[in-house]
Amino acid sequence: MEESISGFKRRGSWGEVVEHGEQITRALRDAGVEGRPFDDWDEWRPKSHERLGEDVNQKTAKQASVGEGEGEKKGKTPNDDLKTAGEKLSRSYEKVEEGDNEGAVESWQDSINYVARAADSAGRKALRKVEDTVYRKVMTQLAPYYFDNELISANIQQVGRGSGDEQFIFEVNVNDDDLKTQVSETLRDFEDEVDRWHIDTEKETEVAEAVEGVEVPVTDQEERSKSTTN
């Protein structure tokens, strides 16, 4: 691992860069980090069973897309908001006939707000569709896959294509300086104390247990790995 002002960088095989992401995640957890930014990072980081051009590509496109507007967050479609806008406008006319000018203006303003929200939702939806297509087909050919939020800034790319030796560069930066120092110290401890990091893999053990009625035995290697990582 290389450490610099721009973050923690690891160059190596897929297993090695996956290990890099796992160790940083473990260091963050040991530092007491939790919440949505951490969960988003933990979801995005590459996993041993994933592929860069498929799984990481898809997750990057998703996290890079335009967020939901107010209408979408409330589960309302543009048509829902346009319908409500029409109702508010009709109510405004009723207020005028009743002589309630203040109420008429208020209903009219509500109507305009719902129209604007409908346009916002429709625009975001269209933009996300374009973004997804452009990102998947164009941007990932020109730039690394990246992740960015208030906690972590990271990017990963494949190097040496066609050389027969598949290599990756994975660089991760912790955006808070004090937290970055804690993570750095933990990563150095991992390098000093852990001979071999046990990469997390998806295991299909529940089905076997249900069929056989017994627990799946833990191998000596897995037991040693647990003792070094716990």
Number of DSSP helices?
Answer: 9
Low-pLDDT runs of 5+ residues are 203-230
Mean pLDDT: 76
Order of helices and strands: EEHHHHHHEEEHHH
Shape: elongated
Q: Helix/strand-derived class? A: alpha+beta
**Radius of gyration, taken over Cα atoms and rounded to an integer in Å:** 25 Å
Main pleated sheet: 5 strands, antiparallel
Quaternary structure state of the chains depicted: single chain
* Helix content percent band: 55-70%
With strands numbered from the N-terminus, the spatial order across the biggest sheet is: 1-2-5-4-3
Strand content: 5-15%
How many strands? 5
CA-CA gap between termini: 21 Å
Structure description:
- The chain is an alpha+beta fold and 230 residues long.
- It is 60% helix and 13% strand.
- The chain contains nine helices and five strands; from the N terminus they run ββααααααβββααα.
- It has helices at 14-30, 36-44, 52-64, 70-73, 78-97, 101-142, 177-193, 206-212, 220-229, and strands spanning 2-4, 7-12, 145-148, 152-159, 167-174.
- The protein has a five-stranded antiparallel beta sheet.
- Residues 203-230 have low confidence and may be disordered.
